[in-house]
Amino acid sequence: MIDLAGKTAVVFGLANKRSIAWGIAQKLHAAGASLAICYQNERMKAEAEDLINDLPGASGFQCDVSSDQEIETLFGQLKEKYAKIDILVHAVAYAPAEDLKGAFINTSREGFKIAHDVSVYSLIAVSRAAAPLMTDGGSIMTLSYFAAEKVVPNYNVMAMAKASLECCVRYLANDLGPKNIRVNAISAGPIKTLAARGIGALGDMLKAAADRAPLKRNVDQLEVGGAALFLASDLASAVTGETLYVDCGYNVMGF
After folding, report:
1. Of 83, 107, 154, 218, which residue is least crowded by CB atoms under 10 Å?
2. Which positions in this protein are listed as binding substrate (predicted)?
3. Is 162 annotated as a binding residue?
4. CATH code for the domain of 89
């Protein structure tokens, strides 16, 4: 059994009980980690706080990762409360809904900028802020998707962002490796999260994944949480710069 007692984990991206961030938070909490769980804004606070209250000892923090000022404020609060952190989970992605439907060629310039700022640059920004607090080394992880490699209709500009995100993971792994900070991505299969509902034909994606994956089903949040728990632990002490697929094997299939 993995024991994270004495470790502090910061989890970004909690929206509701369907969030992958929530599945990860539950697994880290069950392993004994102290949790700082971050939600985006005041509108999401009530639902997020209800979930956080189900994890005794966890604390909630508000932070919009598209704001450098809010990131700076958050990590000041984290330093004051925890002194150091060991694990950071970046479960954040966003693109305008109109850029997640129809033909990719119609992607707007603004939609492209927003998708990359919120979904990719934010990983750089929070990693930069977290690194000085990871005084005993640490594990940073983010969430990707198979569309970073292969065409998934309607995923559109978010696929560009996920490809950039995976590249970002490798560069951050190189930068932070000398500090014994590992950086990895989890490429989860499609899950019906709040963010995913904005993608056109999500139902078709879920059906195709379940039909074609070797395990003949879709993945759930807690299974992604299990992979995150592994990456957070010493069992993954030599794993960095990688993309770990948690998709019931879908990515290995040709057709």
Report:
1. 83
2. 95
3. yes
4. 3.40.50.720
